[in-house]
Amino acid sequence: MRVLFAEDEQEIREAVITLLGKFGHTVVAVDKAEDLLVELGRNTFDLILTDNDTGSDMRGLDVARKIRTDPFYKEIQDIPVIIQSGSAIEAETLKLNALFLLKPWGRLQLKMALDEAVLRQAGSPIR
Length: 127
Description:
The chain is α/β, with parallel strands linked by helices. The protein has one domain: Rossmann fold (3-Layer(aba) Sandwich). Helices cover 43% and strands 19% of the residues. The chain is built from 5 helices and 5 strands. Strands 2-1-3-4-5 form a 5-stranded parallel β-sheet, with helices on both faces. Helix 2 runs parallel beside helix 3. It is globular and about 35 Å long.
């Protein structure tokens, strides 16, 4: 799976890239939420994983909202989005049909979120 990943903290970004690679995924990483939108215009991805706070004016929730509602992104409006955050934003992510990953998370939680995103994309019922 091709994953587009945004995280402003370099150590975390590198650790997640390594972990996703071990899961068998190809990762393109950026450090700001705005850069996610730029990459979406350049390449095709299967999933977006983003921190909610990437140290810029645009948050992960803003990216998900833009993808889900902006006609420019009509062809990818159903792309799975996982938003990670240290604060409770779960209700907001659900409104945007995105998954929420509470920080700090472990390897198992990330794997479960990725699996759930794939199931949602395939239209399978979530257990």
